[in-house]
C-alpha cells in the first residue's frame, strides 16, 4: 500500500463520505478500502459525525465487576493464555459460595452488573453453571447478571443434551439477563480452523445470539482482531453481525477487541498499532449503521487511546471492571480496572459528557 494518498484514493474517500452523509449503507469494498487508506483523519471525522448523530456528546460507562468462575477449559484456542487443564498449577473452579465470598471481598458500592465468563469446564455438569447464577441472584438480587459467551452456551448444549433455547431458558430462570459478546473472534470458519478456535463455529455463534434475541434478551458482540485475518475477513465479520442485527435488533453494542501480544501458540508477538485500533473502531462505527454503540475497551487499547477513540466513533468505555484476567493473561499492560472517577475524568478530558448506565443503556446519572 502506498503511504501517499493518490487522487483516486481521495475520490473514493469522497464517494464513501457522500454515502455516509446520506445514510447509505457501506458495502464490503467500502469497508476494505477504509482499512487500506492512510487517510485516518477523514475516516475518523466520518465516524465521529455518525456517532454525534446517534449519541450527541454522551459517552457511556457502567459500574461493573468481572467474575471468572473457572479457568479449566476443554478447548485449546491458539490465542488463549487463560485456560488450564484440570490439575494444572493455578487451575480453579469456584463453587457458588466461593463466588459469593470473592464478590463480598471485592465489591464496591454502586456495582450494578457482574460480567461473568470462564472456560469450557467439562468436569462439572451443566447444573453447576445454573447453580452458580442462582447463588449470585439470591445473594445480590439488585445486580444484573451479564453472563457467558455464545460459545459457552453452545458448550452447555453439548454437555447437557439440551437445545440452545432450553439452555438459555434454564439460565434465565436462574437470573441470566444478558449474554457477553466473547467467543466471536473472527466470524470465518477458515480463520477458526487455522487459529484452532475449538468452540462454537460461525453458525452456532450467530444462532445462540439469534435465539437469545428471540427470547427477548439483549446481548453484546465482539470481534477479536490482529492475528492472521485479512481486512476483508474483518469487514465480512461486521457484515454478518449487521445482518443479524437487521433481523433481530437484539445487540446492544459492538466491541472490537485488540489482540494482545503474548500468544506464542498463535505466533502473535506484537501489539496492534494505535493506527490500526483507531481505524477498526471508526470502520466499525461506519459499517454497523444499525448499532447504537461501539465500545472502546480500555483493557486492550489503554486509557489514553480509549480517550482518543471517542473522537473516532466510540460511545462507550465499558466500565470499572475490577481485576480483569483474560487479556492480562495474554499480555495486556493496561490497568485491570478503573474507578468511576477515573472514567468520568477520561471522558470529560475528551470533551464528552460521561453517562453512567445500566447493562441496557438506561441512563443512571449524567455527569454534566
Ligand atoms: S478462548 Fe475460551 S474456549 Fe478458547 S481455550 Fe480460552 S477459555 Fe477455552
TrEMBL record:
The keyword S-adenosyl-L-methionine applies. S-adenosyl-L-methionine binds at residues 79, 185. Its EC number is 2.5.1.120. It catalyses: 3-[(1-carboxyvinyl)-oxy]benzoate + S-adenosyl-L-methionine + H2O = 6-amino-6-deoxyfutalosine + hydrogencarbonate + L-methionine + H(+). It comes from Paenibacillus albilobatus. Belongs to the radical SAM superfamily. MqnE family. One of its GO terms (molecular function) is 4 iron, 4 sulfur cluster binding. It holds the Pfam family CofH_C. [4Fe-4S] cluster binds at residues 73, 77, 80. Pathway: Quinol/quinone metabolism; menaquinone biosynthesis. GO terms for biological process: menaquinone biosynthetic process. It comes from the Bacteria. Its cofactor is [4Fe-4S] cluster. CDD domains: Radical_SAM. Radical SAM enzyme that catalyzes the addition of the adenosyl radical to the double bond of 3-[(1-carboxyvinyl)oxy]benzoate, leading to aminodeoxyfutalosine (AFL), a key intermediate in the formation of menaquinone (MK, vitamin K2) from chorismate. Binds 1 [4Fe-4S] cluster. The cluster is coordinated with 3 cysteines and an exchangeable S-adenosyl-L-methionine. This is Aminodeoxyfutalosine synthase. Keywords: 4Fe-4S, Iron, Iron-sulfur, Menaquinone biosynthesis, Metal-binding, S-adenosyl-L-methionine, Transferase. The keyword Signal does not apply. Residues 59-292 form the Radical SAM core domain.
Amino acid at each position: 500500500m502506498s503511504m501517499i494518498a493518490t487522487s483516486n484514493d481521495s475520490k473514493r474517500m469522497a464517494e464513501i463520505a457522500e454515502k455516509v452523509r446520506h445514510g447509505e449503507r457501506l458495502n464490503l469494498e467500502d469497508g476494505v478500502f477504509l482499512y487500506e487508506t492512510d487517510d485516518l483523519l477523514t475516516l475518523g471525522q466520518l465516524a465521529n459525525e455518525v456517532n454525534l448523530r446517534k449519541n450527541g456528546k454522551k459517552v457511556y460507562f457502567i459500574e461493573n465487576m468481572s467474575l471468572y468462575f473457572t479457568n479449566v477449559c476443554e478447548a485449546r484456542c491458539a490465542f488463549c493464555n487463560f485456560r488450564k487443564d484440570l490439575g494444572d498449577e493455578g487451575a480453579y473452579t469456584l463453587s457458588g459460595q466461593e463466588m459469593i465470598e470473592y464478590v463480598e471481598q471485592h465489591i464496591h458500592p454502586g456495582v450494578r452488573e457482574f460480567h461473568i465468563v470462564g472456560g469450557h469446564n467439562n468436569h462439572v455438569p451443566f447444573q453447576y453453571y445454573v447453580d452458580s447464577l442462582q447463588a449470585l441472584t439470591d445473594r445480590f438480587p439488585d445486580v444484573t447478571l451479564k453472563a457467558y459467551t455464545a460459545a459457552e452456551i453452545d458448550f452447555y448444549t453439548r454437555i447437557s443434551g439440551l437445545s440452545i433455547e432450553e439452555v438459555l431458558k434454564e439460565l434465565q430462570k436462574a437470573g441470566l439477563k444478558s449474554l457477553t459478546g466473547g467467543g466471536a473472534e473472527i466470524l470465518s470458519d477458515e480463520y477458526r480452523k487455522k487459529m484452532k478456535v475449538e468452540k462454537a463455529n460461525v453458525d452456532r455463534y450467530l444462532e445462540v445470539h439469534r435465539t437469545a434475541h428471540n427470547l427477548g434478551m439483549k446481548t453484546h458482540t465482539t470481534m477479536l482482531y490482529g492475528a492472521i485475518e485479512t481486512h476483508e475477513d474483518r469487514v465480512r465479520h461486521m457484515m454478518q453481525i449487521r445482518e443479524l442485527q437487521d433481523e433481530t435488533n437484539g445487540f446492544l453494542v459492538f466491541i472490537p477487541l485488540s489482540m494482545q501480544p503474548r500468544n506464542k501458540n498463535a505466533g502473535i508477538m506484537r501489539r496492534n498499532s494505535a493506527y490500526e485500533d483507531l481505524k477498526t473502531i471508526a470502520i466499525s462505527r461506519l459499517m454497523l449503521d444499525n448499532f447504537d454503540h461501539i465500545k472502546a475497551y480500555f483493557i486492550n487499547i489503554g486509557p489514553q487511546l480509549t480517550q482518543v477513540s471517542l473522537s473516532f466513533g466510540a460511545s462507550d468505555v465499558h466500565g470499572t471492571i475490577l481485576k480483569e484476567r483474560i487479556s492480562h493473561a495474554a499480555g495486556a499492560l493496561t490497568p485491570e480496572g478503573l474507578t468511576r472517577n477515573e472514567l468520568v475524568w477520561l471522558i470529560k478530558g475528551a470533551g464528552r459528557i460521561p453517562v453512567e448506565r445500566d447493562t441496557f443503556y438506561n441512563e443512571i446519572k449524567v455527569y454534566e
